[in-house]
Design goal:
The structure holds two protein chains of two kinds.
Chain A lengths: L5 H4 L7 E3 L5 E12 L2 E12 L3 E6 L5 H8 L7 E7 L2 E4 L11 H5 L5 H14 L15 H14 L4 E5 L7 H18 L2 E5 L3 H7 L2 E6 L2 E7 L13 H11 L8
Helix pairs in contact in A: 4-5, 5-6
Chain B lengths: L4 H10 L27 H24 L11 H13 L2 H33 L1 H14 L8 H8 L3 H25 L3 H9 L4 H38 L5 H10 L3 H29 L1 H8 L1
The chains are: A alpha/beta, B mainly alpha.
The complex binds adenosine-5'-triphosphate (ATP) and magnesium ion.
Chain lengths: ~260, ~290
């Protein structure tokens, strides 16, 4: 992807409304429509996410998950509908997306200023297990380490809303499990509202308070997960939920 | 209506002349991931580098020692050495070298500054792009030395013309490479900047400029080579000082040994300046070489 001259310099036609003090909801989107070249990718999507709520968004490839997330992140302005998001929104991408020409600490404090941000960044790096890596170059980090640095960067913004687009998609299974635990811990500690886009049904069940399924640009399922915070995999309803979601995604559950 | 400049650019890239000597390259490493290169170090490295020149020197000694070449065609290393000795002893070499260095440096500074400014203007604003880029892309196809007659009419044959020609020659590779690099900063980093609350200035300072730095250095390497090339020619056409002048003068009285001294000086200047640029490049782009040193 190359940088088009218009990208950084023109403001789009629409941006999400930044709500200063969201009363109960971090995200309120109603009747969001987005089409590419006349083809509707999102159709009448309405969703709300409560403050401190962890929502996972599932959907088949091409169903419009990233499109929705980019709209909420303010990266796409060509949509119709009403979108309210809080003041402080942070995004974690599938690739850790650390600036390769900046060391880890300035990557974490990117766009932030002052002693406080600096201190918070150091604390967060320690929290994600990267103490001592402040001066490392991103290229020297492993995939998991880079993704943890990206999480620290997102949280350093003290977001009211944390948007994540398949943040663990590129990690190996073991690292993934560790990252799930870490994310859960960070979430409980910092309590942002979270929208986690993922392909992984189990990941969604393990982490989320609520699961949304996007099918062909429409929200087809809104499923609260009433499971304990810990030991979800052992819960009696785990497999049932998994089967239900897989069916919703149009995949036969092969776990029989 | 937005004009699709990228297709325009591709068109005149196709139409560019095959004049390799003066063609200004664009580094295509920018487009592909940087691959780690193995760089030999220490004594082995020196031997690698010095072996070729030493062999050449050997051939030269042998050829003139055995009388294969006439000393008026090509002086022996000994003759060349004593010619250099005389030129240094009477201060001529230093005097002319200093003047050449000055011209190259002033031209380089002006050309780099203008090239970078133009690249920023056209890389960062649509208006700048429309006004500047297609013009500069068109001009770059022209061999810079074709400008000499016009430049003489405009600037006479004084000091300015040499500096102007060097600056012009330098400007193009700087512009082209820096501009390409700015425009090919990955859009995913632009998204990152937007979601990190970097303003426009922050975006330029933290993302676009550092992202374009490798391209700038590629341009700088081309530029330095072109600076010497343009200087050699313009000092031989009309000058009363400089290494090029020294060589022209020697030619008119048949002193091939002085000509060879001039050649060697130019070669050394080229080598030293390229090494310097590489040194600064490595310093500035440590982040890129971290994989190599791991
Ligand atoms: N910039 C764009 N231009 C044209 N079409 C686009 C663009 N971005 C997305 N699309 C189309 O919109 C549809 C939804 O894309 P999106 O990236 O939102 O899917 P996704 O649900 O995130 O898929 P995945 O799980 O594979 O990441 C796809 O059909 C895609 O081709
Ligand atoms: Mg996606």
């Amino acid at each position: 992807m190359a940088l088009d001259a218009s990208v950084p310099l023109t403001t789009g036609t629409r941006t999400p409304e930044r709500v200063r003090e969201p009363a109960t909801h971090a995200v309120r989107a109603s009747k969001v429509n987005r089409s590419f070249d006349g083809r509707g990718v999102l159709e009448e999507v309405s969703l709300s996410i409560g403050n401190g709520e962890f929502v996972a968004l599932l959907g088949r490839s091409g169903s419009g998950k990233s499109t929705l997330l980019r709209i909420l992140a303010g990266l796409d302005s060509e949509y119709a509908g009403q979108v309210d998001v809080p003041e402080r929104v942070a995004v974690a991408f599938q690739d850790a997306r650390l600036l390769p020409w900046a060391r880890i600490l300035p990557n974490v404090t990117l766009g932030l200023r002052g002693q406080r941000a600096h201190k918070l960044a150091l604390e967060l790096l320690a929290e994600v297990g990267l103490a001592g890596k402040e001066k490392a170059w991103p290229k020297t980090l492993s995939g998991g380490e880079a993704q943890r640095a990206a999480l620290a960067r997102a949280l350093a913004r003290e977001p009211e809303l944390l948007l994540m687009d398949e943040p663990f998609g590129a990690l190996d299974a073991l690292t993934r499990i560790k990252m799930h635990r870490l994310l859960r811990r960070l979430f409980l500690r910092h309590r942002p509202a979270v929208l986690l886009v993922t392909h992984d049904v189990e990941e969604a069940i393990l982490l989320a308070d609520r699961i949304l399924v996007l099918t062909d640009g429409r929200l087809s399922l809104d499923l609260p997960i009433d499971l304990p915070a810990e030991g979800r995999r052992q819960a009696a309803t785990f497999r049932q939920l998994r089967a239900q979601l897989l069916t919703e995604l149009g995949v036969e559950d092969d776990d029989h | 209506m937005p004009i699709d400049l990228s297709s325009l650019r591709d068109l005149d890239r196709l139409a560019a002349p095959a004049d390799e000597a003066l063609r200004v390259g664009v580094d295509d490493r920018l487009a592909t991931p940087h691959r780690a290169r193995r760089r030999p170090r220490g004594l082995g490295f020196l031997v690698d580098k010095a072996l070729g020149p030493l062999l050449l020197l050997g051939v030269w000694f042998t050829a003139s020692g055995l009388g294969w070449v006439d000393s008026t065609t090509l002086p022996s290393p000994g003759q060349t050495w004593s010619a250099a000795h005389i030129l240094i002893a009477n201060g001529q070499l230093q005097e002319h070298l200093l003047i050449s260095l000055q011209r190259a440096a002033v031209g380089l500074v002006i050309g780099v500054t203008v090239g970078v400014l133009l690249a920023l203007l056209s890389g960062l604003s649509r208006v700048g792009e429309v006004l500047l880029d297609s013009n500069l892309q068109m001009l770059r196809s022209m061999p810079i030395l074709a400008l000499v007659p016009l430049a003489i009419v405009w600037f006479g044959i004084g000091e300015e013309i040499k500096v102007v020609l060097v600056a012009l020659g330098v400007m193009f590779p700087i512009y082209l490479n820096t501009h390409t690099a700015i425009r090919s900063v990955d859009a995913k980093y632009i998204d990152l900047a937007a979601t990190s609350g970097l303003g426009r200035i922050g975006l330029i300072r933290r993302v676009i400029l550092p992202g374009a730095l490798p391209g700038f250095f590629t341009g700088l390497r081309f530029s330095v080579a072109i600076a010497w090339l343009v200087l050699v020619v313009s000092e031989q056409i009309n000058a009363s000082s400089g290494i090029g002048y020294l060589m022209t003068q020697a030619r008119s009285i048949g002193q091939t040994d002085v000509i060879v001294v001039g050649l060697i000086v130019y070669a050394l200047l080229g080598l030293i300046s390229d090494t310097l640029v590489r040194f600064f490049e490595r310093r500035a782009l440590t982040w890129r070489s971290t994989l190599q040193s791991r």
